[in-house]
Every structure is written in C-alpha cells, then in structure tokens.
Amino acid sequence: MSYDILVFMEEKMEKAISYLENELKGIRTGQANTNMLDVVNVDYYGVPTPVKQIASITIQEGRTFVIKPYDASSLKDIEKAVNIADLGITPMNDGSVIRLTVPKLTEETRREMVKKVNKIAEDAKVQVRNARREYNDQVKKNKEISEDIQKNIMDEIQKVTDKFVEKIDEIASSKEKEVMTI
C-alpha cells in the first residue's frame, strides 16, 4: 500500500459526484429538460423500465413534455409512473399521448428547490468525507509505512478530498443558479 490508495479513493469519490449529478437531474428549473424524466421508471410488463426506453419524448414551447409511447397499452402505466416519481407535474392523458407542462416556479418553490440542491450536495460531501476517513484509517493501520510517509499520504488524501468537495460545491452552485434564473 502506498500512493496507489489515492487511485481507489478517487474512484470512490467519483461515485459521490455521479450520485450528485444523477440526483440533480430530477430537480425542476422551470424549463422542460428531458433529464427530469430520468427518475421516471415505468412498470412495463413487470419490469421497471426508464420511460425514455418505451416512449418518444419531445418538448414543445420550452415547457411542455409530450410523451408518446411506442406501445399504446402502456399509456396508463406511464401516467402512473409520472405520478409516483413526484416531479411536481400533473400528467394530462389525452388517449394517445401524455402531456406534462412544467409550471413556472414561484419564488417560494425556487427556494425549496435550492434547499433540495443543498441537501443533495451535502449528502455527496458526506460520501466524500467517509471515503477520506476510510482511507486515512487504512493508512494509520498499516505498520509497514513510516510515519513520514503516512503523513505525506494523509496530506495527499486531504488534497484530493478538498478537490472533490470543491467540485461538489461548483456543481451545486451551478444548479442553484439554474433554479433561481427566471
């Protein structure tokens, strides 16, 4: 064990970034964005399936999704999945397509979305810090490494941790601006 530990730690911390980016996709910004529907999984013949795999999705006028299923019999299942996903959007089923109009966000709703962004970012930071603690503990327990080298490795671990926390802050800040932009 030496500086190789940093590679494994970075992989673990990258997962926290992936978690953050994935969770932020589902946050409404007032504009229709197909990433918002990534969290919608339809029970399609007993198998949870992303809505994008069983329907074509288009955006009209910047704020309305039009979901046209490839199989018309799945229309009700898609409508149910949208309701379960809790997007804050009520689906309108006209018999052949489902329309989802993204409402304009009120100031209060925007602030709630920012709180949600900050909570998700904090969860990602906790994952990064847990990885730091885990790898610091591994370094401390390894008696084959001199104290000087242990200190150097732990300093590097801290630098990598700081880099990932900064990246999380940048991603969260960018999403905050997106949410607060009218």
Structure in words:
The termini are far apart. It is elongated and about 70 Å long. It has five helices and six strands; from the N terminus they run αββαββαββαα. The chain is 58% helix and 14% strand. Helix 1 (4-25) runs antiparallel to helix 4, helix 1 (4-25) packs parallel to helix 5 (147-180) and helix 4 runs antiparallel to helix 5. The chain folds into two domains: 4-25 and 106-180, Orthogonal Bundle (Topoisomerase I, Chain A, domain 4); 34-101, Gyrase A, domain 2 (2-Layer Sandwich), CATH 3.30.1360.40. The relative contact order is 0.18. Strand 5 and strand 6 (98-101) form a beta hairpin. With 182 residues, the chain is an alpha+beta fold. A four-stranded antiparallel beta sheet has the order 3-4-6-5. A two-stranded antiparallel sheet has the order 1-2.
Principal-axes shape call: elongated
Largest sheet features: 4 strands, antiparallel
The percentage of residues in β strands lies in 5-15%
Query: Class by helix and strand content?
Result: alpha+beta
CATH class of the largest domain: Mainly Alpha
Radius of gyration: 22 Å
Question: What's the count of strands?
Answer: 6
CATH topology of the largest domain: Topoisomerase I, Chain A, domain 4
What is the H/E string? Answer: HEEHEEHEEHH
> Which spans of ≥5 residues are poorly predicted at pLDDT below 50?
none
How much helical structure, as a percent, in the residues? 55-70%
Mean pLDDT: 90
Distance between the termini: 51 Å
CATH architecture title of the largest domain = Orthogonal Bundle
Count of folded domains = 2
**Count the helices. How many?**
5
Q: CATH superfamily assignment of the largest domain? A: Ribosome-recycling factor
Lateral strand order in the biggest sheet: 3-4-6-5
